[in-house]
Design a protein that fits this description.
310 residues; 0% strand
Amino acid sequence: MNIISAFSNGLRATGATKKYILLAYILNFLLVAGLAASVANSIGSSVGSSQAGENLRLGFDDTWFQNYSVNQKDLAATFSPSVTGMGAIFNGLDQFLRGGIFENFPSIVAAGFLYLLLWTFLSAGFITVYASDGEKPSFFQQAAHFFPRFLVLAVLAGILYYFIFGFVTSWLDSGVRSLTRETLDERVHFTYVVIEYAIVWMMIVSVNLIFDYSKIMLVLSQSKSVFMVPVRSAALVFSNFRKTFGLYALIGIAGIVLMLVYWLIVPGAKTSTWFTIVGAFLIGQVYLIARIWMRCLFFAGQTTMGKVLV
């Protein structure tokens, strides 16, 4: 099977799981709703009936924000103008690239672990449905069945991510500083940083692919043994490099296009009327559903490819 066929089959497969994609969105929304309410309550208490409220409605009040941010801790301290529109995506990407995910406040790290558990469970259900050729199995029954083994894979992947962000990035940062210590040309420094990010991204993509196909192999083989599956998956991924990485890149490009479309239409922090505020919220929710659909497209496309390669 070629890359385009796997991509097309993945699109069709995701179309048959719309209700589960919507369910995944609802569960994700509920997970963060409590966190959002906590921040909203903190901002509301700070603004009260002051002039800052009117200033914020019309745009942004930097004086209020500076006073507010100094006194906030934990979750409320994460609020800034950059959490609106595309800023939220860029913030998350920056945290990911720097390996700063676990440098966040405890409540955010805890929510992140809950998010990981949720998607470990959901991914088991989605992959099982996409792997079936005949009658579709029970989504929740299969998700519960494979969840323990998928959780082991998540822990193994987490160890590798920790190694990459905890040791490899530090070693590369030190190397870049050493190589550019006496260099005044910013272009040289920029080139080394780009090379560093390219190495880190390639390692991250490799880990993603290995454990994506590990999940698929577990479902297809119904194997009870988990620990050797990533080894077999790595052999499959790299022996079929063009197909596995090519499909990943194609779906990734589709995701980037989706992100650029969102960037073009999403309002910024100066949204001031109820109509534009509600509109910005709805656009954001549609984008989140599309992001979940893209994740399922990864599951579906790679499962389609895996059924041929395994």
